[in-house]
Design a protein that fits this description.
The protein folds into 2 domains: 117 residues, Nucleotidyltransferase, domain 5; 65 residues, no CATH class. Helices cover 43% and strands 13% of the residues. The protein is built from 10 helices and 5 strands. It has a 5-stranded mixed sheet. Helix 3 crosses helix 7.
Length: 248
C-alpha cells in the first residue's frame, strides 16, 4: 500500500486505547495500546500448585503397633517403599532405632493404629521429637486393605499398608493442646532418664557378677530375672555360694 510505513520505523506509540481490548476509556488521554493498568495483577507460573522444596517430596510412615516389638515402614508420595519394614523394641534403644529409620524432617507424616494402650508411648515419643503423627482407627486401615485385595496379598507387613493408607488418604495429624504437649515432653524426658538409669544399673550388675561371681551366668542366663535377684540376695559371691552349699 502506498504511503505505508514499516512497523519497525515507528517512533511513537499507537493512540486511542488504554485497555487491552482496544477500547479507549472515557476521559482518559491516549496511551500505549497495552497498558498494564488494563491487565491488572497476574501471578506468573502454574496456578493451584503448592511450592515444594526442590528435591524433596512427602514421605509417609506406617507403624504396626504391638506389645513389645513394633514394625515401621516408609513409602514415598507415589506409594513406593523407600524404607523397608524394620523392627524396633519398646525401650530406649528401640526408640533410638525408630528415629534412625524415620530420619524425621518436615516432609514426614507418621501413621499408627490405636491398638489398645500400646500406641501411647510411641505417639508420645514422636510428638516430643516434633514428628507429625496421626492415630488411626484400625477399622479404617482394615477397610482400606480390603479395597485393594491384590495389594493386601502382596504386602505381608501391615506397616507398609498403614503407610500407603497415609499416602492415599492424607488424614490430618492428631494434635494436642500446648499445655498437654509441654507435659508430654517432660514425661518423655523422665521416662528416658528412668530407662537409661535401668540400663546403667544392669551394666553395673553384670560387672559386679563378672568380678565376684563369674560362674553365676553359666547357671542363670538372665540376670535381670526374679530368680537371679532372689539367688544373688542369698549368694552375692562365689565364696558365699560354696560355703552355703549352693554352687560346686
Amino acid at each position: 500500500m502506498q504511503g505505508a510505513k514499516s512497523p519497525g520505523l515507528r517512533t511513537a506509540p499507537s493512540t486511542g486505547s488504554l485497555c487491552p481490548n482496544g477500547i479507549q476509556r472515557a476521559g482518559e488521554s491516549p496511551a500505549p495500546r497495552m497498558d498494564k493498568r488494563g491487565l491488572g495483577s497476574r501471578p506468573r507460573g502454574l496456578r493451584g500448585r503448592s511450592r515444594l522444596t526442590p528435591g524433596r517430596t512427602m514421605r509417609y510412615a506406617g507403624i504396626d503397633i504391638a506389645a513389645e516389638t513394633h514394625v515401621v515402614a516408609v513409602v514415598d508420595a507415589e506409594g513406593e517403599v523407600v524404607q523397608k519394614a524394620g523392627k524396633f523394641t519398646e525401650d530406649a534403644e528401640g526408640y533410638a532405632r525408630l528415629l534412625e529409620l524415620l530420619k524425621p524432617s518436615d516432609d514426614l507424616h507418621v501413621g499408627m493404629e490405636a491398638t489398645g494402650h500400646y500406641w501411647q508411648n510411641v505417639f508420645a515419643y514422636l510428638v516430643a521429637h516434633d514428628v507429625k503423627v496421626t492415630v488411626i482407627n484400625p477399622l479404617r486401615t482394615r477397610r482400606h486393605a480390603e479395597e485393594d485385595l491384590k495389594r493386601a496379598k502382596t504386602d505381608s507387613i501391615d506397616a507398609v499398608g498403614i503407610g500407603r493408607f497415609m499416602q492415599e488418604k492424607k488424614p490430618a495429624a492428631t494434635t494436642l493442646p500446648d499445655e498437654a504437649n509441654l507435659q508430654l515432653r517432660e514425661l518423655v524426658r523422665l521416662r528416658d532418664r528412668v530407662l537409661q538409669d535401668m540400663v546403667d544399673k544392669m551394666n553395673q550388675l553384670h560387672r559386679v557378677i563378672d568380678l565376684g561371681f563369674p560362674e553365676f551366668t553359666k547357671l542363670v542366663k538372665d540376670v535381670s530375672s526374679a530368680l537371679a535377684t532372689s539367688l544373688l540376695s542369698q549368694y552375692p559371691t562365689a565364696q558365699c555360694s560354696q560355703r552355703r552349699g549352693w554352687a560346686r
